[in-house]
Amino acid sequence: MVSPTSPVVNIYPLSSYTFGMKEPKMEKDTSVADRLARMKVNYMKEGMRTSVEAILLVQEHNHPHILLLQIGNTFCKLPGGRLKPGENEIEGLKRKLSSKLAANSLAHQPNWQIGECAAVWWRPNFETVMYPYCPPHITKPKECKKLFVVHLSEREYFAVPKNLKLLAVPLFELYDNVQRYGPVISTIPQQLSRFQFKMVNS
Amino acid sequence: MVSPTSPVVNIYPLSSYTFGMKEPKMEKDTSVADRLARMKVNYMKEGMRTSVEAILLVQEHNHPHILLLQIGNTFCKLPGGRLKPGENEIEGLKRKLSSKLAANSLAHQPNWQIGECAAVWWRPNFETVMYPYCPPHITKPKECKKLFVVHLSEREYFAVPKNLKLLAVPLFELYDNVQRYGPVISTIPQQLSRFQFKMVNS
């Protein structure tokens, strides 16, 4: 039997991290329809899509904040992306985090410590809607997306693609805000509630 | 670093459990106002209220269902309740589960195996609203409620108080249904999404 103690996450102030800029990372698709069509083509070739995303935590005023990438003026997403066929999910998430947030110089790679799985979402059809379970009667889901808590070191340098903005959004802003952040990101506060956050003020 | 593998929960068919009836367990309060007033009195005597609740899982048609206690025709709650001052949360949850769902005979006590903490909710004020984090600037929360996954054995006998109904509600019914189940119960599917459910068909 698993012990019911809560995992501990150290959270450092936003100000202990340094942010720079790098070349743009454009979205592969310019519309939702294009995106779903590309998913379908990939599914025919490689089967179910597996994607991994990171919950990166910082604190301001002793309240946890999550780092989100903003595209344009409204759409926000977690850093992460699709695994290659057969790729290990931890290694794949490190690769995706470096591609989205690390400097190009190999000397400046953040120490990505991939921690606990926080949630798993399923896409039953080639549609935008996802569920936190595989719905009954769905034998061939089209995507499985896993969210992991990443334990950041006390100091890091992040390089943000020019076309994106990196935002630190407080839990109280995400909570109950499905209109702005969608069903996956707006329920991160509930998924994180079992953790013990240790606010480290350096 | 914690390994990011998902915990496994065996889930047995609803039909492998037996249900009986026992004497009614009345609610202590007849209105929300009474309940909040009683909370205030207890807070003055004992400090922050700590409550523990159980997520009991069964399956039907290979889909996970949660056992909820229904009071009257609409209100549903998880089995559980308030800890005594200083009481251990695991022991306290076992005590509450036996009081709500076990036969009075000590020979028929279910094997309550209290597992993972699934979520923690905070009540900042003597009001009904709770949050999955302690809101900033709240130094004296009035209640902390913890939800635990309980690993049921393959066969058990449950005795349900006469004035309550025990319902097995599928995850797909809870999901995105805050109107019917409230914010705590309706996001249980997201909190459980990280688990690997093993449907055992006996």
TrEMBL record, chains A, B:
Which InterPro entries does its entry note?
Cleav_polyA_spec_factor_su5 (IPR016706)
Keyword RNA-binding listed? The answer is yes
Q: Which CDD domains does the record match to this protein?
A: NUDIX_Cfim25_Nudt21
Q: Which GO terms describe its cellular component?
A: mRNA cleavage factor complex
List all membrane-crossing ranges: none
Where is it located? Nucleus
Keyword annotations from UniProtKB, A to Z: mRNA processing, Nucleus, RNA-binding
Citing just one GO molecular function, the answer is: mRNA binding
Keyword set includes Phosphoprotein: no
The superkingdom listed in its UniProt entry is Eukaryota
Question: Which Pfam family name is an example for this entry?
Answer: NUDIX_2
List, in alphabetical order, the GO biological process terms annotated in this UniProt record. Answer: mRNA 3'-end processing
On subunit structure and binding partners, the annotation says:
Homodimer. Component of the cleavage factor Im (CFIm) complex.
Name the family the entry cites. Belongs to the Nudix hydrolase family. CPSF5 subfamily.
Report the function annotation for this chain.
Component of the cleavage factor Im (CFIm) complex that plays a key role in pre-mRNA 3'-processing. Involved in association with CPSF6 or CPSF7 in pre-MRNA 3'-end poly(A) site cleavage and poly(A) addition. NUDT21/CPSF5 binds to cleavage and polyadenylation RNA substrates. The homodimer mediates simultaneous sequence-specific recognition of two 5'-UGUA-3' elements within the pre-mRNA. Binds to, but does not hydrolyze mono- and di-adenosine nucleotides. May have a role in mRNA export.
Q: What is this protein called?
A: Pre-mRNA cleavage factor Im 25 kDa subunit
Q: Which organism is it from?
A: Dendrobium nobile
